[in-house]
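Figure 3 (text version): C-alpha cells given as input.
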C-alpha cells in the first residue's frame, strides 16, 4: 500500500515537473567570499558499549505438499 502511494506521488511530481517550462532571464553570479580563521569544536565522546555475538537456533518448518491443477503431486 505504501509503495503504491509513493509510486503515485512520484508519478504526480514527475508529471507536474514536465508540465512547466523555465527560461533563464539572468544567469547571475556567485558572490565573492573571504574565509579565514576558525577552529573545529572539541568533542569528548563516550561510545555505547555494544556486545555482538552469534547463536545457533533450530527453526521448525512445516512440510508443504503442492498439488498442481494437472493432478501430479510434487
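Below: residues designed for each position.
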Amino acid at each position: 500500500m505504501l509503495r503504491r502511494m509513493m509510486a503515485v506521488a512520484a508519478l504526480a511530481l514527475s508529471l507536474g515537473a514536465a508540465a512547466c517550462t523555465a527560461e533563464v532571464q539572468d544567469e547571475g553570479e556567485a558572490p565573492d567570499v573571504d574565509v579565514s580563521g576558525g577552529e573545529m569544536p572539541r568533542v569528548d565522546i563516550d561510545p555505547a558499549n555494544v556486545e555482538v555475538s552469534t547463536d545457533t537456533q533450530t527453526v521448525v518448518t512445516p512440510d508443504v505438499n503442492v498439488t498442481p491443477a494437472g493432478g501430479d503431486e510434487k
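The longest helix spans residues 2-18.
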